[in-house]
What does this fold into?
Amino acid sequence: QVHLMESGGGSVQPGGSLRLSCAASGYTRPINAMGWFRQAPGNQREGVAAIYTSDGRTHYADSVKGRFTISQDNAKNTVYLQLNSLRPEDTAMYYCAAGSYVADTLQQLEYSYWGQGTQVTVSS
It folds into this structure.
């Protein structure tokens, strides 16, 4: 049973920064990709950033390119999402996801395992 635990959400002012963490445990088959998704009230869940665990290749949604950075620490089985230059429209619940056969990294259907989410609120 794969378990993903997110942390690091909170409330910040526009222009501020946050760092989200996602610690993974319990997987019995290799995870080939991990991603971060977000969902704001009334909106569909959207892919934000993802990383292939074997080689570190990353993918980003256009809306966050240049502001968000995904990274991994394989020794700790942890993936991070650095959120910089935050905007009110970044306000959402952020979810960590993991999958063993992910090809399209920003598509939620590609992922089998999900965390409970951590709230990010950007407001003045």
Notes: The chain has a mean pLDDT of 95. Residues 32 and 55 are 9 Å apart (CA to CA). The longest strand covers residues 18-25. DSSP finds no helices and eleven strands in the chain.
